[in-house]
Amino acid sequence: MKIELELAAQRLREHDKILILTHKNPDGDTLGSGFGLYYGLKQLGKQVYLRNSDELPAKFSYFYDSQMTAEFEPDYIVSVDVGDTKLLGTKLEQYADKIDLCIDHHVSNTLYAKETYLDGAASSVSEILFFLLELLGIWFDEQIANCLYTGLVTDTGCFKFSNTGVKTHLAAARLIEFGADYERINRDMFETKSFARIALERMVLDGMEFYFDRRCAYVLVTRAMMEEAGADYTTFDGISAITRQIEGVDVGLTLREIGADDYKISVRTSAAVNASELCRKFDGGGHVRAAGCTLKGNIADVKRKLLAAAQEMLGSR
Ligand SMILES: [Mn+2]
């Protein structure tokens, strides 16, 4: 059931032992909103713990609380930025049918939680969290400001994507006022690239293929390429955006081999194509211009299916 933000705030106020769940392969928004909520609830004197199926990436280490302890039985379970229980990952799937509240901005959210606050117009869950913590009367210290600001900028490509709205900028302005270290965060998130990242980008550009009058760009990143570049999934973050930087490209398909005959696909589109709609054909989802799905099978079949779907989407415009 969908609920209003005021009720979500009330639910959080009513509970004292709260577990926060974030999505696998964590990004700046799921961790930024998760830790923003974590520190906000700590301020209210609650016991809080945040979990992820994967190891937490080093680049977000400034979020972490070395004092965080799981030594309590939660009486309330909240998920942030998790559009589907499939995204909880192996370590958290045990909670799939036990989630009390989901706070999300994915239009494809499957409404798996007992109650859901969903704002598909919000740039990020971190944006939602800014207004939620305000309702809870939290004092925004630097730590909370840094967490939420990171989520805002990573999900909007530093305020460049179409999901950036008036509320995004309002929240960001307030977060800067509260001490968000925007210069360092933006440099760390967008400017600084590891050698592994540069090596991977070089391979991606080299192997890029174009279809349908160059309206579709296709990129395949194999495990061998990842290994050669010395890259892990955090290095990969944002690689799919490269396809959309190319003039005339309406659909960017970026495939990452995650196992034998197992591919994770990131779809990036221009205004001409709905990425979420394309991914739904393969049981995936996401946002209008950025969505994802997974496909199993040999690469030739996977590629054929994806290109056919892309062609269909392009043909209908
Ligand atoms: Mn998000």
What class, by secondary structure content?
A: alpha/beta
Roughly what percent helix? 25-40%
Named CATH architecture of the largest domain: Alpha-Beta Complex
Q: What is the CATH first-level class name of the largest domain? A: Alpha Beta
Order of helices and strands: HEHEEEEHHHHHEEHHHEEHEEH
- The fold-level CATH name of the largest domain is inorganic pyrophosphatase (n-terminal core)
What is the radius of gyration?
19 Å
Order of strands side by side in the largest beta sheet?
6-7-8-9-11-10
The main sheet comes to: 6 strands, mixed
Small-molecule binders here are:
manganese (II) ion
Q: Identify the quaternary structure here.
A: single chain
Taken as a percent bin, the fraction of beta residues is: 15-25%
- Mind telling me the CATH superfamily name of the largest domain? inorganic pyrophosphatase (n-terminal core)
Tally of separate helices? 12
**Contiguous uncertain segments of 5+ residues:** none
Distance between the termini: 35 Å
Tally the structural domains. 2
Return the average pLDDT rounded to an integer. Answer: 96
Shape: globular
Protein name: DHHA1 domain protein
Domain DHHA1: 228-314
Domain DDH: 17-151
GO molecular function: nucleic acid binding
Give the topology:
Elements: H1 5-14, E1 17-22, H2 28-43, E2 47-51, E3 76-80, E4 101-104, E5 115-118, H3 125-135, H4 142-156, H5 166-177, H6 182-191, H7 195-207, E6 209-211, E7 216-221, H8 223-229, H9 233-236, H10 241-244, E8 251-259, E9 262-269, H11 275-280, E10 285-286, E11 290-296, H12 299-315
Parallel strand pairs: 1-2, 1-3, 3-4, 4-5, 7-8
Antiparallel strand pairs: 6-7, 8-9, 9-11, 10-11
The structure holds manganese (II) ion (MN).
InterPro entries: DDH_dom, DHH_sf, DHHA1_dom, Oligoribo/pAp-PDE_c-di-AMP_PDE
Protein name: DHHA1 domain protein
Domain DDH: 17-151
